[in-house]
Every structure is written in C-alpha cells, then in structure tokens.
Amino acid sequence: MEFLSPPSNALFPELTQAASTLTAPLITVDCTAATALCKKYDINAYPTIRLFHGLEDNIRYRGPRAADAIISFMIKQQLPPLTTLDNETIQVFKSIDDKVFIAYLPPPTDDDEEVSPDDLIREIYTSVANQNHDRFVFGISFDPALAAKDGLPVPSIACYKTRSEGNNEALAGIEFSRRKVEEFVQAMSRDVIGEMNRRNMQEYMQPSKLLAYIFYDTPSTRTHLRRSLGRVAKKLQEYVTFVTIDDNEYGHIATSLEVRPELLPALVVHDMMTDRVFVYDQEAEIYPKAVGKMLLDILQGKSTPGVQPVEDQKAHEENNDEQKGNDNGHDEL
C-alpha cells in the first residue's frame, strides 16, 4: 500500500509496472483525503510504502522507489527463509533478486545419533538464513553437479550478483563456522555502489573520500550503470564512494553540482575536503575505463574542477575489458 500526499507522479509508473508482475494487490491512498486512515498507521512522510499482512501487521518498505526493487522486496516476503533447489529451479532462483545466496552442501544423513560436520554447516547456514530472511534470498542445493557447473566445491556458499555490481563471490575451501558465514553475508550486503536518499545522505558525506554521484532518470539506467561501473567502484572503494541518486526526486542536488538535466545519466565527483566538483562530460557515454581514468587523475591531482574531457572510446571494447575475469564467474574468499 502506498500512502501519498499529494499523489506521486514519479512513483506511480513504477508501482504500475510492479503491479503487473506481482500477484498481491497494490493500493494507493491519498492522505489529503483519507486523513484518519493515514493517522491510524502513523504516516508522516510521503510517499510511504508498506506491506500489509492483515489490517494491523505491516512492514515499511525502505528501498529504492523503482519497480524492480519493489518486486524484489515482495518476492522476499513471499519466499520461505530457505528454499531447496534442484536442476529445474536453480537458474531462475539465481536471478530472483540483486543478491542471492546458495549453499552447496552434502545431502543430510540418516544417522540421528551423531552430528557430522556437514550437519553443523547446514544448521549454521539455516540459522543465518532465518536471521536475514527480510534482507536476502537464501537457497540450498544437495546436488554436487550443480556446484560443479559453477566451478565450486562442496561444501561452499555462493553469492550471485545477477542484477548487482561486481562478480559473483563464494565462500569455499575453509572450515565453516557461524562467524565466517555471518561475515560473508555481511560483506556481500555492502553495496559497492549504494543508493543515496534522505535517510542515508549523511552516511555518504565522508570528507576523507571523493563522492561520485551517478544521477539517473530511469531504474533501468541505474541498473546498467551499477553493473558496468561495479568493478571500478570496487577497485577504488578505499578512496571513492560511489552512489546512485534519482534525479526525479533529487534534481536540486544535480543542479547544485552543475549537472545539465537534459543530459542524463550524469556522473559528478565531489571532493568534499576542498569543495571542488568534477563533472564527467555529459556529451559522452559513461564508460568504465573513462570513469576510472578520470578518478585516478583527480586523486593524483592532475585535474582541475569543471567538465572533464573524455576520450572517444568504443562501447564494445569497454564491455569486453570489463567482462574479463575468472572462468567460473566467482571471486573466491
């Protein structure tokens, strides 16, 4: 249910798109008309999205106001904490959310008298899945052939980033403990490129780092740029914080940073220590290598504030370079 005051023109198309995919009904409420209803549920910020289980039990949605993110949130709420997978279900499951965890474990034994190391790993993973059910999607497979397809041993835990930035990563080749599994899940939970909004804006304002804003106007553009710039962001994360930001909602920030609103997407680097602003040439397409070079030049003191020139590059050359990596697509931890 979406609470509005007045109706949100930017969010409505995203809700409509999400509603076409989901089975649960999506309802909008105009709080200027239904004041008593909005007061009953303590709605004091607009727009607000909540998932209701009955009239009283509800969960507030705090993610990006985009159809794919809303769908992802709803799917997580409808799935069990842990889904057992087989050859017919695993491929669809891998792409069900931005980040999907799948454990490849030996099948359970019938011996009830003694707890084996494999039983302990399964218990740990199940417990972590239950604890993080509201945040992530967890699956489990007892088929070693499925692990082998991804070049993974048994046991191992993989994080598939099918709609997120960066490579898939796996926890393997170690003695599993609850601490290691929890640390792996927490490490994967930190987006290399986050989404800036009113609630977390101050968290990103770190004077010790450059702040790279990625202004977008459509969810598909955001998804594309997060994926294409993921490796650059990960490589430079010690020195640069990358964030995406919705120009439809935060256009005033783009304007203050001298972004031309008619030429989106846009990338702007803000050195908050010196209050200098560097704008990636909006006439050029945003390529990972060009962004990396621009950032290195800024970090090395080679650039002056303002619009940064971008060398002409072919998209397919960039894409080929960015897709190079491990044959199995996993960075092993």
From TrEMBL:
It is an enzyme of class 5 (isomerase). Its EC number is 5.3.4.1. GO terms for cellular component: endoplasmic reticulum lumen. Gene3D superfamilies: Glutaredoxin. Pfam families: Thioredoxin, Thioredoxin_6. Keywords: Endoplasmic reticulum, Isomerase, Redox-active center. The keyword Endoplasmic reticulum applies. Residues 311-333 have a biased composition (Basic and acidic residues). Residues 304-333 are annotated as: Disordered. It catalyses: Catalyzes the rearrangement of -S-S- bonds in proteins. One of its GO terms (biological process) is protein folding. Belongs to the protein disulfide isomerase family. Participates in the folding of proteins containing disulfide bonds, may be involved in glycosylation, prolyl hydroxylation and triglyceride transfer. This is Protein disulfide-isomerase. It comes from Byssochlamys spectabilis.
